[in-house]
Amino acid sequence: MSVAKVTISIESGLLKKVDYLVKERIFSNRSQAIQSAVKEKVSRLDRNRLARECAKLDKPEEQSLADLGLGS
Q1: Threshold 0.85, pTM exceeds
Q2: For the chain, what is the domain count?
Q3: What is the radius of gyration, based on Cα positions, of the chain?
Q4: What's the CA dihedral at 15, 16, 17, 21 to 10 degrees?
Q5: Is residue 7 a part of any domain in this protein?
Q6: Largest Cα–Cα distance of the chain, in whole Å?
Q7: According to DSSP H, which parts of 1-72 are helical?
Q8: In-domain check, residue 29
Q9: Does residue 36 lie in a domain region?
Q10: Which end of the chain is less enclosed by CB atoms within 10 A, N or C?
Q11: pLDDT at residue 68 above 80?
């Protein structure tokens, strides 16, 4: 996996919390901690988007389409 270097601005209180996690060896460094947090947030957003799209489906219509597919 390729890695890109970026620069961010972060609230000092939040950075202290990140540094604490590194100090406690929960993460090996700041980059790993922040990358993990971003990855988790993006994953949550993706799951929420999928749930919203699924909620738009007409369940009886989807079931009839599935039943037609099983009959083939």
Answers
A1: no
A2: 1
A3: 21
A4: 100
A5: no
A6: 61
A7: 12-23, 30-55, 59-71
A8: yes
A9: yes
A10: N
A11: yes
